[in-house]
Amino acid sequence: xxxxxxxxxxxxxxxxxxxxxxxxxxxxxxxxxxxxxxxxxxxxxxxxxxxxxxxxxxxxxxxxxxxxxxxxxxxxxxxxxxxxxxxxxxxxxxxxxxxxxxxxxxxxxxxxxxxxxxxxxxxxxxxxxxxxxxxxxxxxxxxxxxxxxxxxxxxxxxxxxxxxxxxxxxxxxxxxxxxxxxxxxxxxxxxxxxxxxxxxxxxxxxxxxxxxxxxxxxxxxxxxxxxxxxxxxxxxxxxxxxxxxxxxxxxxxxxxxxxxxxxxxxxxxxxxxxxxxxxxxxxxxxxxxxxxxxxxxxxxxxxxxxxxxxxxxxxxxxxxxxxxxxxxxxxxxxxxxxxxxxxxxxxxxxxxxxxxxxxxxxxxxxxxxxxxxxxxxxxxxxxxxxxxxxxxxxxxxxx
Length: 399
Known about the structure:
Layout: H1 25-51, H2 53-59, H3 66-89, H4 92-117, H5 125-142, H6 149-176, H7 180-198, H8 234-251, H9 253-263, H10 265-270, H11 275-301, H12 313-323, H13 328-352, H14 357-370, H15 373-379
């Protein structure tokens, strides 16, 4: 009688446990952001090479002398980025201009960041900035107050204007459930055309002028400047605003409620928190921060009020907040970067004839890569995985 032997099943290899990178979440986020900037510079270099006339002229005989094309490409990219760096950091005049450009972007970015952390997508920083600029400019050129007091009142008026414009969004969100994206977009247009109409009135139009421009803000209501540069005290206020937002979010009871609502509104409501109250507070403060950016425009950089006072600051603030990953420090650093790109782009265009729009492309590509961390990690495989990656942007980055 034969004995049948049954083969023992091969042991299933145990899955290797996933190893944590051991790095704090904010470090991982910073690495992803830095990698996104590097990738954006690479994309910008490719665009410079494609558009350079010298490079194009050497492509025709690339097969015979390939190094001519390589040399022309490296020269084009090197000269353009050198001019960009010199325009942003090449001396006090360049640095001060970079800081000047960054000042309203920091405040506008903080406005969007605060709303992010509360679960709101504030697209209305542009309108809130305009509302703040209107009231600040009016107090600046129409009121007659003593030195020091005049500037303080004008700043408070700008904060009030932005707070009211943002508060409308918060109230509508809390009372009716109106989507903040739709409401803020519509209020941007309301603010823009309100400004255009005001500049046709005798109250806001400069005497003797037919174009839409206000009287110049009184010297008592202007931000003091640093030396002969355009940099003014508004930059210091921007940094103080960042400290305030950090304290509000991380060291105050109200900030805890805002972050809780941003993380999970339903759970916060179950825990007894007033979600509607959180929305109103977040949008009022966010509007005030955008209004502060408006004061920095009309009381510091662009003293007369015009229909272009906001430029694209309110919309650029969204990209600044995205690059800043929803943190006050990150927002400040992102604002400084974008301010340097704006200032350096002018020098780059002047020296190398590289279009100024390249800096806009760089900003857009940076945000594109920041918003897709999985793509960045697939390119830079050494980057550790970020916990919570893929979360909805409006929920913020809480680490």
